[in-house]
From TrEMBL:
It comes from Escherichia coli. The chain crosses the membrane at residues 97-121. One of its GO terms (cellular component) is cytoplasm. SUPFAM superfamilies: P-loop containing nucleoside triphosphate hydrolases. It is an enzyme of class 5 (isomerase). This is DNA 3'-5' helicase. PANTHER family: ATP-DEPENDENT DNA HELICASE Q1, DNA HELICASE RECQ FAMILY MEMBER. InterPro entries: Helicase_C-like, P-loop_NTPase. GO terms for molecular function: 3'-5' DNA helicase activity; DNA binding; four-way junction helicase activity; hydrolase activity. Keywords: ATP-binding, DNA-binding, Helicase, Hydrolase, Isomerase, Membrane, Nucleotide-binding, Transmembrane, Transmembrane helix. The keyword Iron does not apply. Residues 31-136 form the Helicase C-terminal domain. Its EC number is 5.6.2.4.
Length: 136
């Protein structure tokens, strides 16, 4: 804090635990097919799909929309008013799915409704995925 030149900053610490969010991991086989199948099974339920790049976010959201699924992209490259609109629609349940980078995770800490979050990973990532997570 000294290096940042902050004098007596407000520090807030909270848990990453979100009991209202169901997390799911699945090994990547045919990721788009897997994703579509899962999303269709969740019809009517809100969800967040995290992607590792803005381009992947845009592509995935467009593919979901082309299948008639209520989805929107959310990443730091979008204008503030667009991100705010997506977040507001998601919180009002006017939008089923947000396809996002971690930018949405930082903005969505106040979500209180039940939803799901899916991560489709490559088998090579397995040791990382299976690493135990310390309790909060």
């Amino acid at each position: 804090m000294r290096l940042l030149g902050l004098n007596d900053p407000l520090i807030q610490i909270s848990s990453f635990d979100r009991p209202n969010i169901r997390y799911m991991l699945m090994e990547k086989f045919k990721p788009l097919d897997q994703l579509m199948r899962y999303v269709q099974e969740q019809r009517g339920k809100s969800g967040i799909i995290y992607c590792n790049s803005r381009a992947k976010v845009e592509d995935t959201a467009a593919r979901l929309q082309s299948k008639g699924i209520s989805a929107a992209a959310y990443h730091a490259g979008l204008e503030n008013n667009i991100r705010a609109d997506v977040q507001e629609k998601f919180q009002r349940d006017d939008l089923q799915i947000v396809v996002a980078t971690v930018a949405f995770g930082m903005a969505s800490t106040s979500l209180t409704f039940a939803s799901w979050c899916i991560l489709i990973f490559r088998a090579i990532s397995n040791p990382i995925i299976r690493k135990p997570v310390a309790p909060a």
